[in-house]
Design brief:
Blueprint: H1 3-28, H2 33-56, H3 66-89, H4 92-98, H5 102-113, H6 120-137, H7 145-161
Length: about 160
């Protein structure tokens, strides 16, 4: 068993949780959503460049599919801006749980986007995850309808990003 891989995975999940919680705190404190997303990606770009540039050199800037990387980058930025907008309107747990609708959308779109057939075991896994999301969100509890709509849109954009 690779212990360092497990530790990196745990550290990554912890950092994403900190990012989400701090993002919610900052948008509630009045920081504009676009500024928050800009800082997130500026810091991410600086850190990754500092970590990867020494070992890979200028090769990190070359690509064979610039068009698709730009589209994917725009989808990633859009999903982050939408998600921070959701956090401004919904509790953290509910806003985060709504992101788990993305696999449902991705499975529904897989035959057209990924040219993959539907498989029962995949659907069972996605439906199980969706049920878990419903447990967290607790349908029927009063949530801001605009926040819920933004959450669904975030999950859809995130599905296209994946």
């Amino acid at each position: 068993m690779n212990k360092s891989g497990i530790l990196f995975h745990i550290a990554g999940l912890w950092m994403l949780s900190v990012l989400d919680a701090s993002g919610k705190w900052l948008v509630l404190a009045g920081v504009p959503v676009l500024m928050l997303a800009w800082v997130r990606y500026a810091v991410h770009t600086a850190l990754m460049t500092a970590l990867v540039l020494p070992s890979r050199g200028k090769a990190i800037f070359s690509t064979q599919s610039l068009r698709w990387q730009l589209i994917r980058g725009l989808l990633m930025i859009a999903s982050s801006v939408l998600f921070f907008s959701v956090l401004k309107r919904l509790p953290l747990a509910e806003g985060t749980a709504m992101n788990f609708m993305a696999p449902l959308f991705l499975m529904a779109l897989a035959p057209w986007l990924l040219h993959e057939p539907h498989r029962l075991r995949r659907w069972l896994g996605v439906v199980t995850g969706f049920a878990g999301m419903l447990i967290v969100i607790r349908p029927g509890t009063p949530l801001d309808p605009v926040g819920v709509g933004l959450g669904v849109l975030t999950a859809l954009v995130f599905a296209f990003f994946r």
